[in-house]
Amino acid sequence: MFKLTNLVRPNIRGMKPYSSARDEFEGEASIFIDANENNLGSMAANQQYNRYPDPHQKALKAAIAQVKAVRPEQIFLGNGSDEAIDLLIRLVCQPGHDQILAFSPTYGMYEVSANLNDVELKLVRLDENFQLQLNKLQGQIHSEIKIIFICSPNNPSGNLINRSSIEYILKSFSGLVVIDEAYIDFSAEESWTTQLSNYPNLVVLQTFSKAWGMAALRLGMAFASEEIISFLNKIKPPYNINEATQQIALSALQNTSRLPLMVNEIKANRDFLADALTHLPVIKRVYPSEANFILVEVSDANAIYSYLLNNGIVVRNRTNQPGCTNCLRVSVGTKDENERLLTCLKSYI
Ligand SMILES: Cc1ncc(COP(=O)(O)O)c(C=O)c1O
């Protein structure tokens, strides 16, 4: 049985969060001399940014809630979804004792955050189609495992994880199930956010770094029950989303008309690139992708990686990842960039 208060680390349950000047006074006033800011202005253009940002990101969350069809209380905002990954681990995992589980090959930050927090990562291999092998989970789930991370679409393989397998884990695991949907906008599947009311242990991660094209601003989202979100808010650094990011994201959310156009163009470019790659002798296999990148198996990943680099093209060499021997991961570029990649690969001997 999932019970969040049992899962949250005892020191966090009883912890008093930092109370900022902006927490202690909300409302109308004419003189703000409560936060040791620079009241003369700032060195930034137009004298901007001398005030601390809203620690609760109210306006931004209201706008995200509309676009994502969730309530603002179900949203946590992080300095990238990487921050949410780290805080989720810190929320429920006792350093030196607890563990998290993920399915390899997958996104590298689950491991980095686990290591940083002195939490062991158990990796269970995906099958040859990069799907979950539920039989491999048997005997692996014990009470020290507090979080299962499922990346769907998965990085670096690009495929969606079967819904029925995820449902099985959500129903049978009594810790948190984090579904990382960084690439969901490029897939045909609906988000797991629609299932939040059915699963109290579900956390869905999304980001502004991919489809929204705002990687430099560092803005990630975690969607979950109000109870989980309020604990994340309690342990986050007070001003984790800076003012520039809040303003720019808000204006992007107020005019979303270009988003589906960009996403459709990236998907069309992906499908063109995937098809063209299958015809190249140097390519052994093109994995189906529901993301904005494609995993390809080549004849010799290290050699082709260096060859591309010598031609000014940087791809990601994934050959050392489990199940990815001789695989390169290629982000979908512009039409012109994709053509240049194809031309370059054609001349490889
Ligand atoms: C699966 C996955 N999750 C999360 C992230 C991190 O996203 P953010 O930029 O929001 O920290 C990435 C970035 O590559 C990713 O591939």
TrEMBL record:
Give the family, as the similarity comment puts it: Belongs to the class-II pyridoxal-phosphate-dependent aminotransferase family. Histidinol-phosphate aminotransferase subfamily.
What gene does this protein come from? Answer: hisC
Cited InterPro entries: Aminotrans_II_pyridoxalP_BS, Aminotransferase_I/II_large, HisP_aminotrans, PyrdxlP-dep_Trfase, PyrdxlP-dep_Trfase_major, PyrdxlP-dep_Trfase_small
Query: What is the name attached to this protein's record?
Result: Histidinol-phosphate aminotransferase
| Subunit comment | Homodimer.
**PANTHER family in the cross-refs:** HISTIDINOL-PHOSPHATE AMINOTRANSFERASE (PTHR42885:SF2), HISTIDINOL-PHOSPHATE AMINOTRANSFERASE-RELATED (PTHR42885)
Which positions bear N6-(pyridoxal phosphate)lysine? K210
Report the enzyme's class at the first EC level.
Answer: transferase
Its EC number(s): 2.6.1.9
Q: Example GO biological process term?
A: L-histidine biosynthetic process
Q: Keywords of this protein's UniProt record, alphabetized? A: Amino-acid biosynthesis, Aminotransferase, Histidine biosynthesis, Pyridoxal phosphate, Transferase
Catalysis performed (reactions): L-histidinol phosphate + 2-oxoglutarate = 3-(imidazol-4-yl)-2-oxopropyl phosphate + L-glutamate
Q: Which PROSITE patterns match?
A: AA_TRANSFER_CLASS_2 (PS00599)
The answer to whether UniProt assigns keyword Transit peptide to this entry is: no
Protein source organism: Adhaeribacter arboris
Q: What cofactor does this one take?
A: pyridoxal 5'-phosphate
Task: Tell me which HAMAP family the record gives.
Answer: HisC_aminotrans_2 (MF_01023)
Q: Where is the Aminotransferase class I/classII large domain?
A: 38-343
Q: Name one Pfam family in it.
A: Aminotran_1_2
Q: Is Nucleotide-binding one of the keywords UniProt gives this record? A: no
Which pathway, per its entry? Amino-acid biosynthesis; L-histidine biosynthesis; L-histidine from 5-phospho-alpha-D-ribose 1-diphosphate: step 7/9; Lipid metabolism
Which GO MF terms are attached to this record? Answer: histidinol-phosphate transaminase activity; pyridoxal phosphate binding
Entry-linked SUPFAM superfamilies:
PLP-dependent transferases (SSF53383)
